Amino acid sequence: xxxxxxxxxxxxxxxxxxxxxxxxxxxxxxxxxxxxxxxxxxxxxxxxxxxxxxxxxxxxxxxxxxxxxxxxxxx
Length: 75
Fold this sequence. Notes:
Blueprint: E1 6-9, E2 19-22, E3 28-31, E4 36-39, H1 45-74
Antiparallel strand pairs: 1-2, 2-3, 3-4
């Protein structure tokens, strides 16, 4: 099965949170309520420096995805 790069998620246990799941490497869940990121991968110390740069780009993409999806709901 081919998954989309980003998925929207919610959970009634976290009623004010909106989650974006990034399904490609490096996989993570972003909580838009507080901008917390939960990584679904293990990283070596060497990877952490590169990850810092990549994280900023991916969070930007995730936010753009969310804005696009919300705009589509409003149509």
